[in-house]
TrEMBL record:
Lineage per the UniProt record: Bacteria, Pseudomonadati, Pseudomonadota, Gammaproteobacteria, Enterobacterales
Organism, scientific name: Pantoea rodasii
InterPro entries linked to this entry: Bact_solute-bd_prot1, SBP
Name the record gives this protein: ABC transporter substrate-binding protein
Entry's family note: Belongs to the bacterial solute-binding protein 1 family.
Keywords, sorted A to Z: Signal
Length: 423
């Protein structure tokens, strides 16, 4: 009787253990920069992970980018905390400042991949509060795509090297007529990078704030940079409907020949190289400002966990799987980022003329990557809402450039001083 009871108890314990193990192995991954091919690749990687970890179930939730910020917020408020989340740099500051992201430092100390990561990768992982709150999966660095055929038609043989040449070339190409414009402007969501990059170039500095926390955006050079974009749009240097353009519109505008220049990251190559002959376009460094320097924006996205997550010990192995050298290189090549591992640029994939502009920016001291102030709690809202709405008003003549910039500076100064007060 005792033996039978013991066996029954053991069976029950094993059953409960299996059930608990099964429950613990159901992971949820949220993707926020979504497209069907991208989702397909991620799903393939998740399937490989499941094959290596029998019994593990993974639910992939793909949120459309336009509503991803709000939808993820709703999930968190309702207690639906994902185990692994794709974390853009613009959100990292908000969640890390609110102490919502898991501190990954202890885990990085015990991961054999950490020593192979570039210094820039680790710096960005720690950008929000000095502690690693994500593992970036790659970098988005701006450079200038230019259409060789349209330049030739306008009597131009090389891309602009200075901001002055950039404005002049855009005007000259726009005079070709037939609906052709010089510059693919991103007036919709995601246009913040261009505004900040052009303002920094004309101002000759990558600093967003002075030591007291005051925004530099109202300095004369910065205002000139903003005015350059406004004038270009109003004078026909960019398509009229580009005031509402997002990523897909500017990229298709470029490869369809509607506009001749595009400032974008390597991810734009995915669509462009499938729609244009390699000899018809090239990628050059961003034009320099009066100081002789350019400040191309650098962004990043990665994998993170929330502190509220109940399965972080199970989620971490999945993050390291997605971040290992083999998977990271495959992911970076597909989604269009510069990879996170030391020496990855030596891969034959990156040894092409199309990548020359980006690696020149990374290696030439006249090109200083511009890091957005993503440590600010309010940066996500500024980037997604404030810049879009106010810049559209200004481009359409409903607001003054200087007033727009003053409003931006007021908001960012308040955010920076609040952040400084906590340090």
């Amino acid at each position: 009787m005792t033996t039978r009871f013991a066996i029954n108890a053991l069976v029950l314990a094993i059953g409960l253990g299996s059930a608990l193990s099964s429950m613990a192995a159901k992971l949820t991954v949220v993707e926020v920069i979504t497209s069907p091919p991208r989702t397909e690749l991620l799903q393939k990687m998740l399937s490989e992970y499941k094959a290596q970890h029998p019994g593990t179930e993974i639910e992939l939730i793909s949120l459309p980018w336009g509503q991803a910020f709000e939808k993820l917020g709703t999930m968190l408020q309702s207690g639906q905390v994902p185990d692994v989340v794709e974390m853009p740099d613009t959100w990292q500051g908000l969640y890390a400042s609110n102490n919502m992201l898991e501190d990954l430092e202890p885990r990085l100390n015990n991961w054999d991949g950490t020593a192979q990561l570039t210094d820039k990768t680790l710096a960005m992982a720690r950008a929000a509060n000095g502690k690693a709150t994500m593992i970036p999966y790659g970098f988005y660095l701006r450079a200038l795509f230019w259409n060789k055929k349209l330049f030739q038609q306008a009597g131009l043989s090389e891309p602009p090297k200075t901001m002055e040449e950039f404005a002049s070339d855009a005007k000259r190409i726009s005079q070709l007529g037939n609906g052709i414009s010089g510059y693919c402007m991103r007036g919709g969501v995601g246009g913040t990078n261009a505004w900040m990059m052009f303002m920094a170039a004309m101002n000759g500095s990558p600093d967003f704030f002075d030591k007291a926390g005051n925004s530099t955006l109202t300095q004369p050079g910065a205002i000139k940079g903003a005015q350059l974009l406004v004038d270009m749009y109003k004078q026909g240097g960019a398509p009229k409907d580009s005031v509402n353009w997002g990523f897909n519109e500017i990229v298709s505008g470029f490869y369809s020949g509607k506009c001749a220049m595009l400032d974008q990251d390597p991810d734009a190559l995915i669509a462009i190289k499938n729609s244009m002959a390699a000899d018809d376009f090239a990628v050059a460094p961003m034009p320099v400002g009066p100081s002789g320097k350019a400040f191309p924006t650098i962004g990043y996205t990665g994998w993170a966990m929330f502190k509220q997550g109940k399965q972080n010990d199970l989620a971490w192995p999945l993050i390291t799987f997605l971040s290992n050298k083999t998977n990271n290189l495959a992911w970076a090549k597909f989604v269009g980022t510069l990879p996170i591992y030391k020496g990855a640029e030596q891969d034959p994939f990156y040894q092409t003329p199309q990548f020359a502009g980006w690696f020149k920016e990374l290696n030439d001291p006249n090109y200083v990557p511009l890091t957005m102030p993503t440590h600010l709690k309010g940066w996500g809202y500024f980037n997604s809402v404030i810049v879009k709405e106010s810049s559209q008003e200004t481009l359409l003549g409903e607001n003054d450039t200087e007033d727009m910039v003053k409003d931006w500076a007021k908001y960012l100064s308040k955010e920076q001083k609040s952040w400084l007060a906590t340090q």
